[in-house]
Recover the amino acids of this structure.
């Protein structure tokens, strides 16, 4: 069984690693600024479509889960972006 994520970035990393074909190329970076958290995901070019999903459904679900997990004791605002 996978380890429990301790923060929003760990949750995103766990989810993205399970979706892509090349989990060793997944990079998750965070930037905090004045009560908000930005989580940037970088994956292999072939895996971008797996993270976005049809009509953006997968990335929307990742954002929803991350925001829900962060509301417990995290920052006021959380955003998840895919960078290439």
């Amino acid at each position: 069984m996978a380890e429990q994520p301790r923060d929003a970035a760990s949750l995103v990393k766990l989810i993205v690693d399970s979706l892509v074909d090349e989990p060793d190329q997944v990079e998750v970076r965070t930037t905090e600024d004045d009560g908000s958290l930005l989580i940037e995901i970088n994956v292999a070019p072939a895996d971008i479509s797996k993270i976005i999903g049809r009509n953006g459904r997968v990335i929307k679900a990742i954002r929803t889960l991350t925001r829900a997990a962060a509301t417990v004791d995290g920052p006021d605002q959380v955003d998840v972006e895919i960078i290439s």
Remarks:
- Helices lie at 8-19, 48-52, 57-70.
- Strands lie at 27-33, 36-42, 77-83.
- The chain has three helices and three strands.
